[in-house]
Amino acid sequence: VSQSRYARVVLEAMSSGLPIVANPVGGVVELVIDGYTGYKTMHNDVKDYVIKLAMLMTDRDLYNELSDNAFNLIKTVYNADNQSNSFKSFLSKYLKKSEESFISDRS
Question: Which contiguous run of DSSP H or E holds residue 38?
């Protein structure tokens, strides 16, 4: 799975209210707030995965807290309006730079 698809899967899971347990690679580094929206594991450490999954499976309050936090983070930070505004800002900056470059090339 490519890192961009991996990040999309994490976003989708969090938007469904699932706490995440994952390696700290790609989008996981930014999306998963360790101990708040899920857990980052030590890279490919199966024992670490098992420990963190067991914590979520045996502590319903912890699961619910991380689940709510994951859902609310997506709802408030990664919502469609914020993503759209971010893209518009990027596009505006890119077009401005392209226009400036075009004008300077013609001079």
Answer: strand 38-40
